[in-house]
Amino acid sequence: MTTVALLGNPNTGKTTLFNELTDKYAYVGNWEGVTVDKKMGKIRHSEMVVVDLPGIYSLTPITKDEAVACNYLLNDSPDMILNVTNASQLKRNLLLSIELLEFGRPVVLALNMIDDLKANGVTYDFDELAKRLGCQVRATNARKKSGLDQLRQELLATPPETTAPLHLAYPATVQDAIATATQQLVADDQLTPTFANWLAIQFMNRNQIVRRYASKHQLQPLLTQQDAYDKQDFEEQIFQTRLAFIDETLTATTKYLHEVSNANLTAKIDRIVTHPLLGLPIFVGIFLLMFKLSFDWIGTPLSDVMDAFISGPLSATASHFLTSVGAMPFLKSLIVDGIIAGVGGVLSFIPQIFVLFACISILEDSGYMARAALVTDRLMQLIGLNGKAFIPLIIGFGCNVTGIMAARTIEQPKERLVTTLISPFMSCSARLPIYGLFVAAFFDRNQALIVLSLYFLGIALALFMAKIYQWVFKVKENSVFIIELPKYHMPRPDIIAMGTWEKGKGFIRKAGTVIFGGTVLIWLLSNLGPAGVVTNIDQSFSAMIGRFVLPAFAPIGITSWQTISALMTGILAKEVISSSMIVLFHLSGQTGLIATFSSLFTPLSAYAVLVFILIYAPCFATLATIKAETNSTKWAVYSVVSNTVIAYLVAMIIFQVGSLFI
Amino acid sequence: MQLRYSESAYPIVTVEQMATLDGQTAHRLHNLGIHPGSQLTVLRQYPFHGPVIVEFDQQKVGIRYVVFKALLGGH
Lengths: 662, 75
Prior knowledge:
heterodimer; A: Rossmann fold; seven-stranded mixed beta sheet; elongated
């Protein structure tokens, strides 16, 4: 089995290429204690495995994300490398290519987005480029699926053997040092000459991962020379040599075309959306539109149809069927009142959630996200974060787990920690079902606005807490903020569909596992009591537990123990709250629950409960991610405690202050 | 090479130095291909010392105002 590593700068279309080249996600897996996913897939009709790695600018990592690629080369040693580059930005893409070519494995260089290059009136002499770099060169356009068959053939035909690595003419002192180190490494440590050569160059280039690797393996020839290398600033000399080589190569291979297309959509759009004054209002407008689509225009009507089907025909048919086959009343009740009502109640939110995910996918695919980071950077600076933290937070609207994982692109560890801790305040899609129910029960008009107000409250709280963490952790004012503004793409329907599915499938999977389990658990707790099966829910276990803690929740306006029991199950997964309520109140679906609410809450206490639900303890999946990303249980526990306390305080203030006026 | 924006519309500046930048910022800018002597086209500057959008080598990048000033040799 041959392994091909897919490497390249961020945003060069690696994942698009990966999805086009391979069948599908073979699996997503972890490896060697690094809690980062690598995606693997097989090239169609072959035994060749492609590994999709996070985008990197160079092998010397700054972010956690980037460390993955370097570690992969060091530890897993792929048979071949597919280096994906943005053809229009070859100059800087080649800085990474050189490092890969020096590694000494066969490299296929894909010049992706070749159409953009040609639109600028430029192309390259591919044969000459291939000769100078010592690798195969292929022009592709992954989005338009051109050049992919040739690339696939090229990969399959390339013999997976060690080839001669690229040798650049580094200055004599550097060259001698590399030669000496390589010789000793081969002699003393039994490394292959090619690997030793690459290792020596990376070591001189202050690659922290390689330096750690050297200390771990006690590579004395390098370790003893470290100070000497750094004192002579080998890093800068290596960089200058590479830059000169790239300039020379590109000058010799660039060809100018006659026709230049003048259409520059990106510049036109950017003139408006990155406008110094209009940028922020446009950003808010886009979000408002996204919420209107999800909750008013498309999502909610579809959800209503689905709910009507589940609580109507589906529930009635199942009930009828179970009676006709003579199922025990206990079992029938479990299936109809527990599972169909509970799980179905959550499933009816699929349309809203998928519309929201589709909107986020469009923003991601089009290239707007980078602009959003840019226009919000100045604001984020005020709270000690940078615009890049905004992207994970926005993704957090879909799911906090993916949001926290997206925080890996943030350079400073402290800023990453702060972003991780405030991520759960982003109102994830799992919290939508319960908002939907309360909003439908208490607010006839302005439903989207009420939901939007919760989202903004979450954002405001996140910013406030970030400011506090900045002060507590002493985050420096000057953080790294360098963000590329890619060219806009017309969002491609299949990429949007796949992105939406990737984000949303977790929700459906949870419906079958955690929500199903939670619903059954709640149903059992509310139908069993100390005395066995109970017919009156007031004597059940859940009533006992709920009543016990009820007094503590009086100050935020909760007067029913059912609500408390439902909130507790929300820690399993937030989607469970609404299905728990349906089960606890013994109702057939959403519509019944909405009617019941009016006797339990006032609009004010309903809003206070929503605020509590927005803020309190993150779900298990999020807690597990916090633990994994921060490498400590402490922060996960801290999240549970602090968020619950904050939720209680904010909900109490809203309820108590509101009570004075209403 | 063909520029995306007409030269008269946007100012072009030259990177004077990178020594006073912090290590990580300098490293990332290096990776993007910025070095002393690079020509940057300044596309936008945000108010209140917000980010600056510069274009070079067919790519557009947003950087902080302080970094931008440092590149030009100021403080």
